[in-house]
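Worked problem 6 (solution included).
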Amino acid sequence: MFKKLFFTLGQIHQSWLAALESVVINKLRTALSLGGVTIGIFAIITVFTLVDSMAIHIRRGIESLGSNTLYVSKWPWEGGGEWWKYSNRPQVSLDEYHETQALLPQAEVAFTTSFNRTARNGSLYVDNATVLSISHNYDRIQTTEIEQGRYFTPFESAHGSRVAILGPEIAEQLFDGSDPVGKTIRIDGVKLHVIGLLTKAGNSVAFNSLDRSILIPLSLAGSFINLRWAPTDMMILGPDGTDMEDLKAEVGSIMRRLRRLSPQTEDNFALNEVSTLNNMFDEMYGKINLAGGIIGIFSILVGGFGVANIMFVTVRERTAQIGIQKALGARPYFILCQFLFEAMILSVVGGAIGLAMVYVGTLLVNHFSNFTLMLTFGNILLGLTIASVVGAVAGLFPAWSASRMDPVQAIFHS
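Solution. The predicted structure is:
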C-alpha cells in the first residue's frame, strides 16, 4: 500500500517538474498566457483593495465617535425622505444642554456648534475654516490629542477667553510650518491667542477630522454667531457598562419633558448612536463588494479563457510526446497532472505579477495623495487562490483530453 502511494506521489512530482520545464522553455507562450491572468487579478484585487481601504477609513471614523456615545441633534443620521419635517425641528439649545447635564450627573455631557469663517494671520489666510465651539468636557468624549501647547482651562471655557486650538492643516497654512503656539490669529476681526496645536489625524472618507478645524470655547461662540440658529449637537457619554437602550430612553424622556411634548406628539429631536452608522455602512459595504465581485468575475474570466486556449495549443503541439509517454507506460493521471500543473503555474505566476502591480500602485497612491491604500494579506491570499482556481478550471479539460489520448493515434498524429 505504501509502495503504491510513494509511486503515485513520485509520478505527481515528475508531472510537476515536467510542467515547470515546459513553462520555462516556452517563454513566448508563457508570456502570452500570463497577460490575461495578470490583468484579471490586477483588476479584481484593485477593486477589493479600494473597497477595503475605504471600509477601514470609514470604520475608523465611526469608531472615533465612540461606541457608547449618544448624539442628540436636530437631524437623524439615517436621513430619509422627510427633509421638511426635520428642517422645522428646533436646534438643541444651551438651556437643554445645561438641564441634561444636571439631570445626568453620572454621564459626561458635552455641547458643540460649528460655523465656517476665514481665519487670518497677517497676509496669510484660510477660507472656509471650520470653527468648532466646544464645551469644556468635549475632550472627555471625543479624541482631542494635543501635539503642542495645551487644552482650554476651566476658566477659559467658562468665561469665553479669546483662545484657540488649531488643527495641523490650519496651522500649516496660517504659519507656514512655524510653531503657532503663543501667536495670534484673527477671525471676523476678533484676535485669538493660539494655545495649542492638535495632533494630525488624517481625513476619513466619510468623516472630517479636526485637522482643518479651529477649536474655541463654547462661551466665545456668541461673538461670531447667534446660537439660537446655529447647528448644534449634544453628546452624552454614559458610564462604563451603560446599556445604550436605557440611556436612549432616559435622554429621550428628558428631552420630551424639557420640550413639553405631549404623549401623543412624536419626538422633534434625533437620538443618534454609532450602531446606526455601522448598520448603514454594513449595508453599503455589502453592495459595493457585490458590485466589485461582479466586475472582478468578468475580468478574471478573460484571463481564464486565455489560459484555456493556450493549453489547448500546448496539447496539440505535444501530441506525439504524449503518445510516446503513454506507450512507455505513463499513467493517465501523470499526463493529466502534467498539463493541469502547467495551467496552474501560469495562472499563479500571472496572479503574482498582478498583485505586484497592485502593490506598486498602492505605494504610488500613498506617496502622492492623502488617502492611504492598504493591500491586506487577505486580498493577497484571495488573489492567489483565485488564480489557482482559474488555472485549475481552465486547464482541466485540455489536461483531461490529453490524458484520454490513444498512444498509437497520438504518435502517428504528428
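Discussion: The radius of gyration is 33 Å.
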